């Protein structure tokens, strides 16, 4: 089981990333739960979602501690790092982080989500870069299986999938442990 939080600000695709993850996990035989919180602002306010992915029945959609924390910005990290369990995987968007020290009881992985998505001409794909980094860090699902299901997800919605899948795969390949 993995208790996951995607956190950032409105407009960064935090809620969408969580929804994509639960759909792909469910399509691949996992039990899932998704809850969200966000402020009244459409863009710029706090946005987060909690996702639980499990092979077994899920007892609560509100975990006490997080196994995975995906931070789209530094404020999200500062706000939610205290909820990370010992040994948790923390994935940060290096594009919006300053140099800093990280706690020794967690593993921190970073990726330049905004730079990568811009290089791929898909600036709205930073959340998918982060998802790729998360899958690489956690190995919770097979990369190719996730990539194929992600392609199906966008094709089913009538959205061209190639640039979105490229963002995911680049995030997977370029994520690196930094702490």
TrEMBL record:
Record-linked InterPro entries: 2-oxoglutarate_synth_KorC, Pyrv/ketoisovalerate_OxRed_cat, Pyrv_flavodox_OxRed_cen
Residue ranges annotated for the Pyruvate/ketoisovalerate oxidoreductase catalytic domain, each copy included: 10-173
Name listed for the protein in its UniProt record: 2-oxoacid:acceptor oxidoreductase family protein
Protein species of origin: Enterocloster hominis
Gene3D superfamilies: Pyruvate-ferredoxin oxidoreductase, PFOR, domain III (3.40.920.10)
Residues annotated as signal peptide: none
Keywords per UniProt: Oxidoreductase
């Amino acid at each position: 089981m993995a208790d996951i939080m995607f956190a950032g600000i409105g407009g960064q695709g935090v809620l969408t990333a969580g929804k994509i993850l639960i759909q792909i996990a469910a399509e691949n035989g996992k039990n899932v739960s998704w809850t969200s919180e966000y402020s009244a602002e459409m863009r710029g306010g706090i946005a987060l979602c909690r996702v639980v992915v499990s092979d077994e029945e899920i007892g609560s959609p509100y975990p006490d501690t997080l196994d995975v924390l995906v931070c789209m910005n530094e404020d999200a990290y500062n706000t939610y790092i205290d909820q990370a369990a010992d040994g948790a995987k923390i994935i940060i968007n290096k594009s919006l982080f300053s140099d800093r020290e990280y706690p020794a009881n967690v593993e921190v992985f970073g990726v330049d989500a905004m730079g990568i998505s811009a290089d791929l001409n898909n600036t709205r794909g930073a959340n998918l870069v982060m998802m790729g980094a998360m899958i690489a860090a956690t190995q919770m699902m097979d990369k190719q299986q996730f990539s194929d299901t992600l392609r199906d997800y966008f094709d089913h919605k009538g959205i061209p999938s190639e640039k979105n899948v490229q963002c995911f795969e680049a995030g997977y390949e370029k994520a690196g442990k930094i702490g």
